[in-house]
Each structure stands twice: as C-alpha cells, then as structure tokens.
C-alpha cells in the first residue's frame, strides 16, 4: 500500500467470486454437508481408474454426492466405490458399493516400471505400499531367490524378478494366482524366472523346502527324482534353476503373517547334519499390525514368542521398522531377520506318554 500511495495509485473495490471450479474436493463437500459434521475426510486410494473410499459413518448419507464430486474433479477416475464391512480374512477381499461412474472393476496399475492387471473385486491390492514394494525389490539381485508366501497379484514378486531374482510366488486365492500368472506374461519375464503357486502359505513353504532338499539329495547320489503325480494347476512347485534355497522370504499378510512363522520351527530338522552346511537360511520379512503403546516392541515380542528364539530380541539380529500408519492408533510393521539355525534345525519335542 505504501508503494501504491507513492505512485498516487487509486484504490478500486473489486468483488472476487469463487465458485465450484476454484474449490478443492474437501471444500466443496464441506459446503454441501451440514455444519454439524466438522471432520471431512474424502481421501481415497487410486487403483487404476478406480477410486476406493473408506468413508466415516457420518458421511455415508452423502456418499453418492461425495462420489459425484470426486468423479467430476478427477479426470482419470471412472469408477468410485466405498468399502462395505471388513476385509475378508481368507482372501483379503472386501465387499464394495458402487457410488458413481462405470460398473467396471478390471483395473490396470503401473508401479515402478511394472504393469498389473486384475479384477479389484476378487483380489487384494494396496496402492499405499508401492514404496515398500520398490524397497524390497532394491534388496535383491541376480543371485537372489525369493519365496513370496502371500504374493497376491505380484506387487513384490514381479519387481523382484525384474531385478534378476528367481521368485517362488504363492497365493491361496485362485483369482490372485490367475492374475499373477497373467501379470508374469504381461511384464514379459523370462521363462523359468517366476514359479506361480496356489497353496496355503504353510504348505507352500513345506513343499518348497522339501523339493529343494530332495533335489540336493538326488544330486548327491547322482539319481533322478521320481516323477510327480498329476496335481491341480498351481499346486505343484517346480524348482527353478539354479536350485538355490531362498535367500529372502516375504510374508505380507499383516493381519496374521506372524501366525505363519511356526512353519519355520523345525522346518529342516530332518536334514542330516552332514548336509546342513549346503543349506543357506533366508532373511525373513514378516509384516504385521500393532495397536500397542510401543508397537515395535510389541511386534518384536510376538515374533520372539512364536519362534522361541531369544537372540531375536537383539536389534542387530532382528530389525523392526514402521512401514505406514494405517489409522491414528494402528501401525503396519515389518520385522526383518535371518532365520536362526536353532529354529530351522530344531528337533521336535518328544511327546510324553503315560502308562497305566
């Protein structure tokens, strides 16, 4: 104003009208819902052309209106859905309500040079983990062998394979397994780079290690393995050359991955001591949730208790790090550690019997 006065400028009143096109989505919604609703959260996850909302209860009466605004203000969004109920514990899928746009759930997502196609209604996908996908892929290379116990449609497995790793990728959900097989071809990965498996996570690990142990035993005795019987598609594990034991095991099932750690207890107990030196033990990446006051300590204690391995209490033996905030009081965590020998080769505890 001092500069204007020095130049003898004349002040003119002007009315600036801000309309729909000048406001962001939250401001528009705030103007449309009752003032009694003070917390407006309309953030959404983007899955290709799909916007996935998880609206608070007080916003549900206005969900279609919110969806129309999101559809209008985001040119790349064609379908808007809202999560209904909780995530299914078996296949990690959830019921969803179409709020606006096309009834089309065939999504294509691009992440760090990889392409993924899937039906969003039938598989698990979390776009908020894209940096974690890239982080894990950065840890592997041509000498790596990855066993992905809960692979989904391949967000960890395919980037790792593109880094040159050999990958055993497993998922219990037949729809995820089918999409994984499709995405392996879509990303033009070399034959023999990824073995896609459709099994329970524990059974996958047991069969994978049994197959590799048998291969090494057959090689030692210069005999050929016996042919396997006919099994359903996706349930037989073909050992990938060069027949190396996994260097990395991924366990991205945060709601219950820690419960699957018991599969590693005594996993290789039957291997003769003379043959154990040839078996390399993997680094395990076990993801989970915690609502504790000290979530990292809580998750460390959970892993130690399941594996009964006191050495994992040491920070230089097991690293426990935050991955992302799921909600104000819920943290996603990753525990990273090399499978201890005393766990993998632990002999089964004899069952006591009583006589009468």
Task: Report on this structure.
With 356 residues, this protein is of the alpha/beta class. The chain contains 9 helices and 13 strands. The protein has helices at residues 2-6, 25-32, 63-73, 130-137, 157-162, 174-186, 201-220, 295-307, 341-344, and strands at residues 44-47, 50-53, 79-84, 95-101, 106-111, 114-119, 145-148, 166-170, 194-197, 248-251, 283-290, 318-327, 330-338. It has a 7-stranded mixed sheet with strand order 9-8-7-10-11-13-12, with helices on both faces. A 4-stranded mixed sheet has the order 1-2-3-4. A hairpin with a 2-residue loop joins strand 12 (318-327) and strand 13 (330-338). The longest helix is centred in the middle third of the chain and has 20 residues, at 201-220. It is elongated. Residues 224-229 have low confidence and may be disordered.
Question: Secondary-structure blueprint of this entry?
Answer:
Blueprint: H1 2-6, H2 25-32, E1 44-47, E2 50-53, H3 63-73, E3 79-84, E4 95-101, E5 106-111, E6 114-119, H4 130-137, E7 145-148, H5 157-162, E8 166-170, H6 174-186, E9 194-197, H7 201-220, E10 248-251, E11 283-290, H8 295-307, E12 318-327, E13 330-338, H9 341-344
Parallel strand pairs: 2-3, 7-8, 7-10, 8-9, 10-11
Antiparallel strand pairs: 1-2, 3-4, 5-6, 11-13, 12-13
